Amino acid sequence: MKNRELSEIFEKIGDILEFKGDSSFRVNAYRKAARVLQDLTEDIEVIQREGRLRSIPGVGEGIAKKIAEYLETGRMSKYEEVRRGISDELIKLMSIPGVGPKTVALVHEKLGIENIEGLERAVREGRLRDLPGLGAKKEENILKGIKLLQEAGKRISIGVALPLVERIMDGLKRRAKVKQVYPAGSLRRMKETVGDIDILTTGAEGGKIIEAFTSAPGVKEVLACGETKGSIIAEGGIQVDLRVVPQESYGSALQYFTGSKAHNIHLREIAKSRGMKISEYGIFRGEERLGGEREEDIYSILGLSYIPPELREDRGEIEAAQEGKVPQLVEESQLRGDLHVHSQWSDGTATIEEIALKAKEMGYEYIAICDHSQSLKFAGGVSVEDMAKKLDQIDRLNRGLKGIRILSGTEVDIRTDGTLDYPDELLERLDLVIAAIHTGFKQPEEQITQRIISALENPHVDIIAHPTGRLISSREAYNVNMGEVLSKAAETQTALEINAYYDRLDLNDVGCRRAMELGVKLSIGTDAHHLDQLWMVRLGVAVARRGWVGPEQILNTWPLERLLVWLKKRSG
DNA sequence: GCCGTTTTCGGCCCGACTGTTTTCAGTCG
User: Is the pLDDT assigned to residue A415 strictly greater than 90?
Assistant: First the structure.
């Protein structure tokens, strides 16, 4: 898959052209192409072979030629041409908040500045204030910007941001008179990571609401505190913005601040073509205000069906809404069980009984206990002998417990040679077999892919867990050819897991969408090792929704009987 | 560079803030 490489090249061309002062429309064209390639569910090489490059939105004659050139020769002459004499460090100057292409070009040309250190030195020596359009104040802001860039907290997982924002909103409701409080931005779209958090609220006394927000416990730093907007750094170094908006434009503000940017731009283009205009204040025809109090207004006035926030990435959802074909997405309430939980038998902290009772309390019909297999010593892998005892225990519990069914499972390791870490005779006795890679992450693509293919070919394997192995905070995905894995999974009718653990979220949204298009079944599992991690199922549902997945595709929306029949048929 | 229920040429999203200006350019979300 060269999709990612091409996306990065076009992004870079966009950056360099912007720096060079090229037409902003051309810059945007490259950036759009970069984004579309990033989100593409199909392999760009396949599309190229079949002569369909031009059918990709945002890919016209010029970009199609460049893609073809790169795929055929491994090089792109346009890229090589624009980056001549331009260093990465120079381009990086544009990432300083408050510093854009014009400023970089100016200091580069007039002062010969090449990197952040050079810029900082020039500012300290007071050499910037003599340049046209720059002054002492701007110098000060650049220093602040450099500091901000260096301290900038990385993006954090949605699984970390969500509990944080809920605490903040609860506190706000207690401490101030707010009518509505709702998160917006990437958090509302449930993107897998968020860079900052936006919260929207309505209420009569804006100043007091902002005051309550900025003086709340847990606030590390107050960046702004006005009548309509407050901005803080919360624990963990993440920035949180609160905006108070008038009731009559609450819907349009929510729509506007939810984004994504690309989605909003596309909507405004449609509005414009129909003689209307959208802003955070409402939707207008000339002076006449057509709506804005409710978010749904914006979509319905444009003749679109409502688009759930998780889909708003300009990945085709607007076209779907024009045709009334927005998919029915899976909902958390439709899940009947969690298919990946660890108990004390391996490295979990709860007993099977405690897990089962908690699952029942959560309204589940079933819960799958999937402990690690024998050779994973560091994770307390269960030996073959212990597995027999564990199965007895599950049988006993199932006879005693009412209203919840414990499924006996395992997360069996796919060893470095592609064999599984339990004999087939044992796997056959289990209700559910999840297979996963936990070792040999550095192997080359063919080898890793072949390991997973071998697992997929084993008739006892029902699900492949965390198919790419990435950890959001710390580890890249291993080299796996996901195209081959998906085709094989479709062929063997094996499910792929959406691992809902906050640091994994693996498959991700684009992976889910590819799976769905190929008819590959999915399962959602929290990979919980504690009872208080079972809530993360929400995150898995969010990934599925962002991947356009409906309930039918997901094993654990099925009633117990149907799931058991499917599992039995497979292993036979 | 892309794209077309006005267009194959001439458009290309919207508003706010900041700082340096005296009417506006640059940057941001």
Answer: yes
